[in-house]
Automatic annotation (TrEMBL):
Family: Belongs to the metallo-dependent hydrolases superfamily.
Lineage: superkingdom: Bacteria
Molecular functions per Gene Ontology: hydrolase activity
UniProt signal peptide: none
Coiled-coil portions: none
Domain Amidohydrolase-related as annotated: residue spans: 5-293
Protein name listed in UniProt: Amidohydrolase family protein
C-alpha cells in the first residue's frame, strides 16, 4: 500500500458556505471543463473513502476559493473539521495580499497553529505576451513582505508565462519559501508549449527558496493519462531535484479526471525507476519537512 502525505486537497461545503466558483450561477467553466459535479460537500468522510486504498500519513488542505470577503472564516471551518475528524494535518489559507486589510488577515491566519502558508492566485493574463501580472504590484509586494515575519510561506498558482515575475519575487525575498502549485500549470501539451513551460519553470528552479507540487496535471476532456503526464512529472523532478518536489491529489477537483488511486498509481509509475529513498522523499519526507507535519 502506497504511503504518502497528500500536499494538495480541498475540503469544502457549498451547502453551508459561500464559494463563488461553486455557488454562483454562470461562473466560467473550470480548466478541466464542466465542474458541476463538484458543487456538493466534500468533507473528511468523503476523503477517507477516496483514500481507502492508500496509507495516508498526513494531508494539506489548500484554500478552496472561499468567500473572499471572509478569508479567515475558512480556517475556522477547517479548525472545526480538525477537531472533529483529525484532518487535515495542516492548511494553507486565503489572503489577498494587495488589499488594505492584508496585514490583519495574515496575522489572524498565522494565529492558527496549523496554518503554514497562504495562497492568492495573482492577477494573470489568459495567454503569453500580455501586460504584467499581479506580482508586480507595489501593494501586493508590501503584503508579500509580511509573510516571512509571521512564519508563513506563499503558495503560487499562476500560468507559466508569469513565472518570470515570480523569479524576481523569490530573489527579492530569499527567506520566504514559495511552493509552486500544479507543476507550474503545463496546460499546453504541444511540443512548443512544453518547451516554453520548462524554460519558465527552470528560472524558478534556480531559486533555492522555491519548491514545487506535482498536482493538478489532468487535461480537459481526458482521463488521467500516464503517457501524457510522465514527461511533466520527470521534467519537474529533473529541474528541482527530488528534495524540492512533492505530490498532491488536488481532490476533489481532479476527481473530474480520475480516481484518487489512479492518480497516485500514475505518479508511482512515473518514478518507479528512482530509488526507494528518492520515492520516500517525493511521497512523504519532503512534505513532512516543508509543511512541518509531525511524524
Amino acid at each position: 500500500m502506497l504511503a504518502l502525505i497528500d500536499t494538495h486537497h480541498h475540503f469544502l461545503d457549498p451547502e453551508a458556505h459561500y464559494y463563488p466558483w461553486l455557488n454562483d450561477a454562470g461562473f466560467p467553466p473550470h480548466r478541466y471543463g464542466d465542474h458541476s459535479a463538484l458543487k456538493r460537500p466534500y468533507l473528511p468522510a468523503d476523503y477517507r473513502r477516496d483514500t481507502a486504498g492508500i496509507n495516508l500519513l498526513g494531508s494539506v488542505h489548500v484554500e478552496a476559493e472561499w468567500n473572499p470577503k471572509d478569508p479567515v472564516g475558512e480556517m475556522r471551518f477547517i479548525a472545526s473539521l480538525r477537531e472533529q475528524c483529525g484532518l487535515p494535518s495542516v492548511a494553507v489559507g486565503q489572503a489577498w495580499l494587495h488589499q488594505p486589510d492584508a496585514a490583519g488577515t495574515l496575522e489572524e491566519l498565522a494565529a492558527f497553529d496549523f496554518v503554514r502558508g497562504v495562497r492568492q492566485k495573482p492577477r494573470a493574463n489568459l495567454a503569453p505576451g500580455g501586460p504584467p501580472g499581479g506580482m508586480t504590484d507595489g501593494a501586493w509586494l508590501q503584503g508579500y513582505a509580511r509573510l516571512e515575519p509571521l512564519g508563513l510561506h506563499y503558495e503560487l498558482q499562476t500560468p507559466w508565462w508569469h513565472l518570470h515575475e515570480a523569479v524576481r519575487v523569490a530573489a527579492a525575498f530569499p527567506q520566504t519559501r514559495i511552493v509552486i502549485n500544479h507543476a507550474g500549470m503545463p496546460s499546453d501539451r504541444s511540443e512548443e508549449g512544453l518547451r516554453a513551460w520548462r524554460t519558465a519553470l527552470a528560472g524558478m528552479a534556480a531559486q533555492p527558496n522555491v519548491a514545487i507540487k506535482i498536482s493538478g496535471i489532468g487535461e480537459a476532456g481526458y482521463q488521467w493519462r500516464l503517457d501524457a503526464n510522465r514527461r511533466v512529472v520527470l521534467e519537474v523532478i529533473e529541474l528541482f531535484g527530488v528534495d524540492r518536489c512533492m505530490f498532491g491529489s488536488n481532490f476533489p477537483v481532479d476527481s473530474l479526471c480520475a480516481s484518487y488511486e489512479a492518480i497516485f498509481e500514475g505518479f508511482a509509475a512515473c518514478v518507479a525507476d528512482l530509488s526507494a529513498q528518492e520515492r520516500a522523499q517525493l511521497f512523504v519526507e519532503n512534505a513532512r519537512r516543508i509543511y512541518r507535519i509531525a511524524a
